[in-house]
Write a structure and sequence with these properties.
The structure holds two protein chains of two kinds. Chain A is mainly alpha-helical. In chain A, 73% of the residues lie in helices and 1% in strands. Chain A has two domains: 8-57; 74-306, MetI-like (MetI-like fold), CATH 1.10.3720.10. In chain A, helix 1 (12-57) crosses helix 13 (278-306), helix 4 packs across helix 8 (187-198) and helix 12 (264-274) packs antiparallel against helix 13. Chain B has a single domain, classed as MetI-like (MetI-like fold, Orthogonal Bundle). In chain B, 72% of the residues lie in helices and 0% in strands. The chains are: A mainly alpha, B mainly alpha.
Chain lengths: 313, 262
């Protein structure tokens, strides 16, 4: 199989092979050249840092004194750190209550916008805009909306004879308050759903209609399966993002009241950039990383039970 | 439908109306949505209290540099992944898909230490240089778009003796307008809205980007809600303007993203 076999009868073949391989070499060279920014980026911003953080996990380091080896000391410390468990529970609450609600709201909005309504682009703008404005700007506003005395939310609740609720000042209500706010930020997911809904083939719906399926059955048995990959995509991205929520809590509650909104990334940030416990923070980051990977893996594992891909049996 | 739309619109409406009020009018109930005498001077007052013109300049500098890097790197890398056939390509593409799913939190601390080692902490570099190495999501978007262009284009150019470099910039890139537009918008907003990176890397107040400047403003003048809201409005306004002019690209972007899910 080597190119150097020189039997006279097949002399032309090594030649063409050599010419081919010259072109292949050029393609390989160019392929590597064109993708080199990304390859370098992955090495410098992912692979390198991840290896480096293994070093950090094993050391105690405040960035002033030289790093000191402590082995698994950080993990033993985590077990005795009540804030680790607290922040994990808070993060899980925010994610597993928040993301399903976000998906439902985003999906409902998309279904509404998918009807033939007047002023579609205006509604699209209204629902989408919040998700692309800087977090600081709207967080400041939401602190006011959730204000127990003059906030609009309590005023609305008052009309229905409810409240007043001490939203951000009461441990039991602070996480629900943040989840309510996150529903207002689902514009991006909504627009992805909308694009998916608009891609549902009309023939399929018509065929189902001819077969006597009513609107609800068409929705459940035709629309949902067709866009299930998009639901899956939004779910994966939503859970990964939700586990890493930071900006809104940092600005609005800074973990309070009584650590009720102390989420993992906020706690990691505090350890790293306020207390300069680089090793401990890196260890916490790895724990969160593994948790997210496990949940992403679980979702992929169950995906083939409910996600329908066209062209796959 | 209208009620729901108004509910979603309310926070923004509150910002606009409060930013035009006198201090005493802010907390009057029932809320006066349209101030009788709009006080435009609140906006000038924001600039007099803190150097918002610097924050705007910094934000735009970082966002523009990051966006240019993101567009160029997406075009280049996506070309290598979609128009060239070479061993290892599928591996690189798999790595690309994997990084899309990796939570960035795990690299936050080591990357900070690396940037500190090369004396980049306290500069704008950590905020925009990474974009020049490309981000998986944008490269993926661009690759999907390039796959829809016929391969005959490249072949014809190759017969004319054009190098891959020329094919990319003279044949393929000009046809990628919609994808470039989408990436431009998303990358710009991503850098413009970025909060954690400036928070970690920028310490001097004259180098603050708008989100940091706004947070600083709120910290110092938090009781002056009419001014805080005017400052918020200054921060939000560019986004609204961009959205107004580029609605089509946003929707298109979502459609591309929808494709990503398939």
């Amino acid at each position: 199989m080597t190119a150097t076999t020189s039997t006279p009868g097949i002399q032309t073949q090594p030649q063409t092979r050599r010419r081919m391989s010259a072109a292949q070499r050029r393609d390989l060279r160019d392929g590597l050249l064109f993708t080199s920014p990304f390859i370098f980026g992955v090495l410098a911003l992912w692979v390198g840092p991840m290896l480096y953080s293994v070093f950090l996990i094993l050391h105690r380091w405040n960035m002033l004194a030289p790093p000191r080896f402590i082995g698994t000391g950080h993990f033993e410390r985590m077990l005795n750190d009540p804030l680790v468990g607290k922040s994990l529970v808070n993060t899980a609450y925010y994610t597993f209550v928040g993301v399903p609600l976000q998906l439902v709201v985003a999906f409902a909005l998309a279904v509404m916008l998918n009807q033939q309504i007047r002023g579609l682009s205006i509604y699209r703008t209204i629902y989408y805009l919040p998700s692309i404005t800087p977090a600081v700007a709207f967080a400041v506003v939401w602190v006011q909306i959730l204000n127990p005395e003059f906030g609009v939310l309590n005023e609305v609740l008052h009309w229905f004879g409810l409240g007043p609720i001490n939203w951000l000042f009461e441990p039991a209500w602070a996480k629900p308050a943040l989840i309510i706010m996150s529903l207002w930020l689902t514009g991006f997911q909504m627009i992805i759903f909308l694009a998916g809904l608009q891609g549902v083939p009309k023939e399929l719906e018509e065929a189902a209609e001819i077969d006597g399926a009513n609107a609800w059955r068409r929705f459940i048995n035709v629309t949902i399966p067709i866009i299930s990959p998009i639901i899956f995509f939004n779910m994966i991205i939503g859970i990964i993002g939700s586990f890493q929520v930071f900006t809104t809590v940092f600005i609005m509650t800074d973990g309070g009241p009584q650590n009720a909104t102390l989420f993992m990334v906020l706690y990691i940030y505090r350890n790293a950039f306020e207390l300069f416990r680089m090793g401990y923070a890196a260890s916490l980051a790895w724990i969160l990383f593994l948790i997210i990977m496990i949940f992403t893996g679980i979702q992929f594992f169950f995906a083939n039970r409910w996600v329908y891909y066209e062209g796959r049996l | 439908m209208i009620a729901l739309g108004l509910t979603f619109l309310m926070p923004l409406a509150w910002v606009v109306s409060t930013s035009l009020k006198l201090p005493g009018q802010v907390f009057i109930t029932p809320i006066e949505w349209i101030p009788t005498e709009p006080k435009w001077d609140n906006y000038f007052e924001v600039f007099r209290r803190l150097p918002f013109h610097l924050f705007i300049r910094n934000s735009f500098f970082v966002s523009i540099m990051g966006t240019i890097g993101m567009v160029l790197s997406s075009l280049t890398v996506a070309y290598g992944l979609s128009r060239l056939r070479w061993p290892g390509r599928d591996f690189v593409f798999t790595v690309l898909l994997a990084t899309m799913m990796l939570p960035a939190v795990v690299t936050m601390i080591p990357v900070f230490i690396i940037f500190k080692e090369i004396n980049w902490v306290g500069t704008f570099y950590p905020l925009w240089v990474p974009a020049w190495f490309g981000a998986a999501f944008y490269i993926f978007l661009m690759r999907q778009y390039m796959l829809t262009l016929p391969l005959e284009l490249d072949e014809a150019a190759k017969i004319d003796g054009a190098s891959n470099f020329r094919i990319l910039w003279q044949v393929i890139a000009p046809l990628c307008g919609p994808a470039v537009a989408t990436i431009t918008i998303f990358a710009f907003l991503q850098h413009y809205n970025a909060f954690m990176e400036p928070l970690i890397y920028i310490s001097k107040s004259e180098m603050y980007t708008l989100p940091l400047g706004l947070l600083w403003f709120k910290g110092r003048f938090g009781n002056f809600w009419h001014l805080v809201m005017a400052a918020s409005m200054i921060t939000i306004l560019p986004v609204i303007i961009i959205f107004f002019f580029a609605q089509r690209q946003f929707v298109q972007g979502a459609q591309f993203t929808g494709l990503a899910g398939r």
